[in-house]
Amino acid sequence: MNTRMASLLTKRPLIAPSMLKCDFANLRAEIERLEQAAAPLLHWDVMDGHFVPNLSYGPPVLERLRDCTELPFDAHLMISDPAKYLKDYVNAGCDAITIHIEAVPEPGELLESIRAAGCSPGLSLNPHTPFEAIEAYLPACDLVLVMSVQPGFGGQKFMGDVLGKVSRIKELMREDQLLSIDGGIGLGTIGQSAQAGADTFVCGSSIFDQTDYSEAIGSLLAEIRGVSC
Ligand code: DX5
Ligand code: ZN
Predict the structure, then answer these.
(1) Residues in the chain with pLDDT values less than 70
(2) What are the C-alpha distances in Å from 71 to residues 19, 35, 46, 96, 117?
(3) Is residue 2 part of a domain?
(4) How far apart are CA 46 and CA 110, in angstroms?
(5) Which of 87, 101, 127, 204 has the most CB atoms lying inside 10 A of its own CB?
(6) From the CA of 219, how far away is ligand 1's center (Å)?
(7) For a substitution probing ligand 1, which of 54, 77, 149 has the most ligand atoms within 8 Å of its CB?
(8) Average pLDDT of the chain?
(9) Would you say residue 164 lies in a domain?
(10) How many domains does the chain have?
(11) What are the angstrom distances between the C-alpha of 155 and each of 21, 114, 123?
């Protein structure tokens, strides 16, 4: 496991700010605010306008921001053909690189390449993708990202039907793997997500729609205090 990602294992539960709803005109300042709010990592939502109907940012932006913080970079690649760009995200300084099973139906080799490059391999599945699609690849991952919205945009409604999948994955995961849920996570949904077995919670609107990031993160954590992650 990548060193920065390994340091997170003892800090669970983790609130992972989704860098899609942040102020893109002030990214350095946003990162500083999140550090002051004790965010343990940053979740970068990379979109190519092909795998998902939205376009966000890529390696040049991540590489520049890498120098601004020591926080782990958790790159969520919502892109087609991620193998083609792996080197770029490794060189940009990503610590975890998560690919979608819908983009790479047989990800074994790519997950190994991500690990060989010194990054933590992650696998993500969309709300309607069955658990069985990733089951064989679970041992090769350091992180599994269960989508609770259709990927592409922040601010969508939480899809609670995925919680059964979260619980099934949790049963098969090792202690040294992170189980992350992504999409529509807020005060009303983080508790049930933690109960289902998630230990990492990607939050966009529930942080960036608030003025005080520290208070937002604190309230989210308070919702899951007592739930064993
Ligand atoms: C959606 C992204 C999510 C999203 C989260 O494709 O993967 O990370 O930005 O935003 P909220 O928390 O507002 O649903
Ligand atoms: Zn995401």
Answers:
(1) 226-229
(2) 13, 8, 17, 12, 19
(3) no
(4) 17
(5) 204
(6) 18
(7) 149
(8) 97
(9) yes
(10) 1
(11) 8, 30, 22
Rounded Cα distance, 153 and 174, in Å: 30
* Residues flanking ion ligand 2, Cβ below 5 Å: 45, 76, 182
Question: Pocket residues for ligand 1 (CB within 6 Å)?
Answer: 18, 20-21, 43, 45, 76, 78, 149, 151-152, 154-156, 182-185, 202-206
Q: Domain containing 73: what range? A: 15-228
CA of 220 to the centre of ligand 2 (A): 17
Name the residue with tokens 């992972």. Answer: 16
Q: How far apart are CA 11 and CA 16, in angstroms?
A: 12
pLDDT for position 185: 98
**Ligand 1 centroid distance, CA of 148 (Å):** 9
